[in-house]
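Annex B. Sample input.
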Amino acid sequence: MPPHGPSPGTGEGFALSGAGRGRRGRGWAMSYGVETDRPPAPTRRPGVARPGGAHYLPRPTSGPQPATASPWNAMDFPLKLKFKKVALSPQISVSDAGGRLLFYVKQKAFKLKEAVTVFADVEQTQPLYTINADRVLDFNARYHINEMSGFGLGTLQRQGRRSLWSAHYEVVRGGGPVMQIREENAWVKVADHLFADLPVVGIFSGYVFNPAYIVSAAGTGAPLMRVKKEAAFLEGSFTITRTGELSENDERLAVLSVLMMTLLERHRG
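Annex B, continued. Sample output.
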């Protein structure tokens, strides 16, 4: 009886010996490259190999993570930003060119420290972001913009004394400025204040003097967005146009910064 196993110098004996062992023999033959009818081994799920060949799926990273869904997935410029002047609690809405509501804010009245929640609906049932000041009533306050998960998008910082003459804000992320928001023409601010103080006709200042703001890249000064106030009565209406290339994250941060800046500058008409 020939011994089981391959003959010296060839694998042929191994295959013949295995042939008499049925399915088990065919399994031996497969390991030596001979055709077999054994079904293929199941595919492993993707994971990380441990010593000894075992696999495991990596655990999710702990800590705040950016949201996967965002209104910016299909945002259509230009945007319309509107707020009511005569409301006790300022209300701001942002819609895209198709009229789809993107954001809604109803600011609480008589708060010494700014704290804003940005919603996706007027009913305020779908919170998206929070914007919180780091101090009480200060020209140099910083406004931290976060997702509801706690993930920080960036910070809007007013440039104190510079903003007394002309609105000037910096948008900061990761400890450094990424964008700036400046008033296009500071003289419009002066004329607007003078006209608004006139008896009776002052209520029509929104039809005469309408400031504009430029969002530009920090460092290069390249224009990214333009925010223009439109003529309106008893409400503020702004058009936001995109004038440069922006990533989705930068675009989101820029629009939220403009929204907060509008709240801070609303007293100017």
